[in-house]
Structure formats: structure tokens, C-alpha cells
């Protein structure tokens, strides 16, 4: 069996843009988590129409999918204005998550409008000010394949 092909820290990127033409990474975030969630509806269905004594079986159908991002790190002056303005306007920005080590034909970027839903800062004496963010895509991001 062959060894896995892995992705380095700098190959998973989080970038924002006003219009989708110029992308900027959020400076200072050193921990980023991308969460992809499927929401299901469940229905109990008879296992056998001729033998009602049997337990019901549960069938599922996907109702919705969503993608969110959380990140933490230091509060960087380079991203101060972008993050504060994004939060207080309540508007969406174009966001993309990149897997730069994706193989040709696989998803390289997930892109779409997103809200900055949480913006936290923490100060601790003797430490740098830290930040944590939560970003919610508005709809399902578009997947862009690597050439």
C-alpha cells in the first residue's frame, strides 16, 4: 500500500475578497477548521408489510448542507479593518477555502458569499492579543476543480 499524500499547513488557505477578483488571506489566523455538515430528516418505515411485529427501520434523506469555518490566532493589524468592518456591516464577503495540494480534477477551492458571524478578541497580560472568528457561508459554496 502506498503512503498517503498529505497537505502542509500553508496549503490549506482561507481568503476573503470584496468582489471575487482579488483575494487576501486573513493575517494572524494560525488555526483554521472547515466544517461541512449535512442535515438529515428521518422517517420510520415498516420493515415488512406482512409482519408488523418487526421493528421499524429508519430511512434518511439529506435536507440541507452547510459549510462553516472557524479560526484562531493572533490579532494582526493587517486584518483589523477588514474584520471589524465585515462584522459591523453585517454584509457578506466572498470567501474561499483552498486545498492547494488537491490533485488535478479534485476540488481545489470552495467559494461563495459568507457572513462573519463571530469575532472575538482576548487579551492576557504578557501575551499578544488573540482573535477567534466564525464564518458561515450563505448557501452552499461553489466547488472549483484544479486544472
> What ranges have pLDDT less than 50 throughout 5 or more consecutive residues?
none
Q: Bin the strand percentage.
A: over 45%
The pLDDT mean sits at: 96
Helix content: under 10%
Radius of gyration: 21 Å
- The run of helices and strands is EEEEHEEEE
Measured between the Cα atoms of the first and last residue, the distance is 27 Å
Total beta strand runs: 8
Structural class: mainly beta
Main sheet specs = 8 strands, antiparallel
Number of helix segments?
1
Shape: elongated
Keywords:
147 residues; single chain; 53% strand; 8 strands
Topology overview:
Blueprint: E1 12-17, E2 24-25, E3 29-45, E4 57-74, H1 77-89, E5 93-99, E6 107-122, E7 130-137, E8 142-145
Characterization of the model:
The chain is mostly beta strands. 9% of the residues lie in helices and 53% in strands. Strands 1, 2, 3, 4, 5, 6, 7 and 8 form an eight-stranded antiparallel β-sheet that branches. A hairpin with a 7-residue loop joins strand 5 and strand 6. It is elongated.
Compose a concise summary of this entry.
This protein is mostly beta strands. The protein is 9% helix and 53% strand.
Amino acid at each position: 500500500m502506498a503512503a498517503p499524500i498529505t497537505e502542509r499547513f500553508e496549503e490549506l488557505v482561507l481568503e476573503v475578497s470584496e468582489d471575487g477578483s482579488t483575494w487576501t488571506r486573513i493575517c494572524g489566523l494560525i488555526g483554521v477548521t472547515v466544517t461541512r455538515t449535512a442535515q438529515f430528516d428521518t422517517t420510520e418505515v415498516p420493515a415488512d408489510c406482512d409482519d408488523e411485529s418487526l421493528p421499524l427501520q429508519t430511512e434518511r434523506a439529506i435536507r440541507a448542507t452547510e459549510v462553516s469555518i472557524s479560526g484562531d490566532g493572533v490579532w494582526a493589524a493587517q486584518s483589523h479593518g477588514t474584520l471589524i468592518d465585515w462584522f459591523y456591516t453585517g454584509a457578506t464577503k466572498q470567501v474561499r477555502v483552498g486545498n492547494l495540494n488537491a490533485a488535478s480534477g479534485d476540488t481545489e477551492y470552495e467559494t461563495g458569499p459568507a457572513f462573519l458571524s463571530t469575532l472575538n478578541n482576548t487579551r492576557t497580560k504578557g501575551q499578544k492579543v488573540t482573535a477567534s472568528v466564525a464564518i458561515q457561508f450563505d448557501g452552499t459554496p461553489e466547488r472549483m476543480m484544479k486544472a
